[in-house]
């Protein structure tokens, strides 16, 4: 009964094929753990970068009534929304989840690089975003998911920010959006870790390999 339960639990995301060793799961565990660590670091860095750049009272990383009223400026400034991250299912596969994570992280890396001038805090955040995207690409390789190269043409946002107020609001909205997206990435990576654990356990019980 236990083996049947585990097989059903992972059926929506994996296909079971005949025997293969476990190192893939161990490698994926290490990469996911590194990704989770980077997510925590990024979530801690965002408020510090926000504090250094955004001086206007009432604009916090956490959603407030005043910042909610400014969200209409996202389209005015040309700041695109990141791809949606949802729970992994038959409709929203692991491949889609990892691909959306990379796409969203790359988007925010470009946004912050365009909107904010270079400082130690900003550059440290950008480096961690880039490293996290790299870790997720490594996950894609480990589970044999093709890596998609995105051709994105961002509008020239900086040319629309013709006042210090607009620069601060654009930085605020971008960091706030990154904060929400990174929280979604955190949930997604925890889900990947759970699936990997179930997959490894199923492989031990049934002597079969999970192919994602």
Sum up the structure in keywords:
2 strands; 212 residues; two-stranded antiparallel sheet; mainly alpha; 7 helices
Provide structural commentary:
The protein is mainly α. Helices cover 65% and strands 4% of the residues. Helix 2 (23-53) runs antiparallel to helix 7 and helix 5 runs antiparallel to helix 7 (164-206). The chain is elongated, with a radius of gyration of 20 Å. The relative contact order is 0.23. Residues 1-21 have low confidence and may be disordered.
Describe the secondary-structure layout.
Elements lengths: L1 H9 L4 E4 L4 H31 L11 H5 L3 H5 L16 H22 L4 H23 L21 H43 L1 E4 L1
Antiparallel strand pairs: 1-2
Portion in helices: 55-70%
Q: Report Rg.
A: 20 Å
Q: Structural class of the helix and strand makeup?
A: mainly alpha
What is the mean pLDDT? 82
**How would a crystallographer describe the biggest sheet?**
2 strands, antiparallel
Number of strand elements: 2
Percent strand equals under 5%
The H-and-E topology, N to C, reads as HEHHHHHHE
Distance between the termini: 23 Å
Number of helices: 7
Which strand order does the major sheet show?
Answer: 1-2
Uncertain stretches of 5 or more adjacent residues: 1-21
- What is the general shape? elongated
């Amino acid at each position: 009964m236990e083996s049947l339960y585990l097989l059903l639990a992972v059926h929506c995301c994996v296909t079971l094929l005949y025997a293969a060793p476990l190192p893939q799961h161990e490698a994926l565990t290490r990469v996911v753990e590194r990704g989770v660590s980077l997510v925590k670091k990024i979530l801690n860095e965002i408020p510090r970068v926000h504090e250094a750049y955004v001086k206007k009272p009432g604009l916090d990383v956490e959603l407030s009534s005043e910042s909610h009223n400014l969200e209409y400026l996202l389209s005015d400034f040309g700041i695109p929304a990141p791809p949606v991250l949802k729970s992994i299912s038959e409709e929203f596969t692991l491949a889609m989840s990892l691909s959306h994570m990379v796409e969203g992280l790359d988007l925010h890396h470009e946004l912050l690089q365009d909107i904010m001038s270079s400082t130690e805090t900003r550059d440290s955040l950008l480096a961690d975003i880039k490293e996290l995207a790299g870790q997720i690409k490594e996950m894609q390789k480990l589970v044999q998911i093709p890596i998609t190269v995105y051709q994105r043409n961002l509008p020239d946002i900086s040319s629309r920010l013709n006042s210090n107020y607009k620069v601060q609001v654009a930085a605020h909205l971008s960091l706030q959006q990154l904060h929400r997206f990174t929280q979604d990435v955190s949930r997604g990576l925890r889900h990947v870790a759970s699936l990997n654990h179930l997959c490894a356990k199923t492989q031990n019980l049934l002597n079969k390999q999970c192919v994602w």
